[in-house]
Every structure is written in C-alpha cells, then in structure tokens.
Amino acid sequence: MTLRVAIGGFGAIGKVAAQHLDRGIDGLALTAVSARDQARAETAMAGFARPAPVVPLANLWEHADLIVECAPAALLHGLAEPALVHGRQVMVLSCGALLDNFGLVELARRHGGRILVPSGALLGLDAVAAAAEGKISSVHMITRKPPQGLAGAPYLEENAISVAGLSEPKQVFAGSAREAARGFPANVNVAAALALAGIGPDRTTIEIWADPMVTRNIHRIEVEADAARFSLQIENVPSAENPRTGRLTALSVIAALKKLTSPLAVGT
Known about the structure:
The chain is an alpha/beta fold. It has two domains: 3-120 and 248-261, Rossmann fold; 125-244, Dihydrodipicolinate Reductase, domain 2 (2-Layer Sandwich). The protein has ten helices and ten strands. The chain has helices at 14-23, 38-45, 76-85, 95-98, 103-111, 125-131, 154-158, 177-183, 189-197, 247-261, and strands at 3-8, 28-34, 66-69, 89-92, 114-116, 136-145, 170-176, 205-210, 217-225, 229-236. Strands 2-1-3-4-5 form a five-stranded parallel β-sheet, with helices on both faces. It has a five-stranded mixed β-sheet with strand order 7-8-6-9-10. It is globular. 46% of the residues are buried. The mean pLDDT is 95.
C-alpha cells in the first residue's frame, strides 16, 4: 500500500521534503501541500513531475494518511487537530509548540491518530530515549548559533536583548526547555524534541548563545543516567532560505518518512 503524504508549509523544510517525495520514495506519494503564498506554491508545483494540489492547511487531512507539519509554530493546532480527529498521522516539526498543545496527544489517543516527532537537527535522541527507560538524573543542552539565526526571537525582543554587532559570544538564555521553546519558537525545537525523548520540558535545561565566531548551528547534549553518561555535539549548516533552521532538518523528515515504509528500519 502507498502512504499518502501531505506537506503543511512550503518553506525551507517543506519544499525540500516535497521535492524528495516527487522524485520518488517507495511506498510514499505526495498528495497535497499547503502554503502561505498559494500562488507561488502552485507555480512551484507546476514544475513537479507529479504536481499535487495546494489546499488550505486545515484541509490537508482530506488528502493524506500522514501530514508533515513544516509551518510556523502558531499554526500547529489548526493543522493537527482536524487531522488527528480523523485518525491521521501528523509529523510535527514545531515540537516546541507541542509542549503547550499537549492535549493533541490525548486527541490522537481517542481517535486513533498518531503524532511523530523526527530527530530534526539533533542527534542522540535514540540514546536519550533508551536511557529514559532507566533513570536519567540530568539532561543539559548548549546551543550556539550565528546571531542572525536568533534575531527576532520573542524572548530577545521581550527582554530587550540585542544580538546585533556582536564581537564575542553572548549567552542570551538559560532555563528550561519549556521556557526556551516559548521564547525561541523558530530556533530551538531541538530542545523540545530532546525533552520529549528524555525527562520532560521542565527538567531539561538549555543554554542559548549568540556566537559571531560560528557559521553553523551547534547543539551539544550532556546526559547523566544510570545506564550511561554521554555527551554529543552536532554542527548543522544553516539553510540558505532560513538561517533559523539547518539543512539537516529537512533530510531528517525524509529519513523518518522512509522508515515508515521500509522493510528495514534502523534505530530505536
């Protein structure tokens, strides 16, 4: 059977995911997309080998078995609720917003839907999830991004923190993953994914640095558990279209989609 896939959001992540699906992935078919600029998306779709219709975000569930959410965090509930009520699967990239919309999980349970969170721009989630089957005493993440990758974040604006013209690294946040997700909704969805895999958003801690000395989005995870102690670091190349996200995020979506239909699935 072919799994029908719709893409909610046609930006740096959604467009790449749609292109990969259009080129062909066994067991998967692109059946719809939604976009803020419908006319632009329709023009882009005309160049696809198998053009998919451009439909409103809330109607994606009508065209798909699984919807990949690549939209702004504020739109998560409007996309996910109707899909889950109708028993669809939703792959959530804005998992920071999921922390404040956790009722969606119960909605999925009641109606036979499912919420999937891919690894995105982070590594080590398999190890964290495995360690969480035992006892984890602490999970800490340190994120360093070029200043332009953090500019405009609500937390910075609310606290009058400027990242313009920096000549040395500046710590702009320290706190829980829940607070980070609210303050940096377009920047640190990785913190929410880490929290969901491990000990939750209130016990998972994060530092965020604006660092003019780096050209990549760097995430370091430090975990202390009864089964293992581990530290992991990844340096992601920012997307040319959106420096707030890394190129790896879109590729993570493709890998997660392939895993759903492949006869061989590697990883926890």
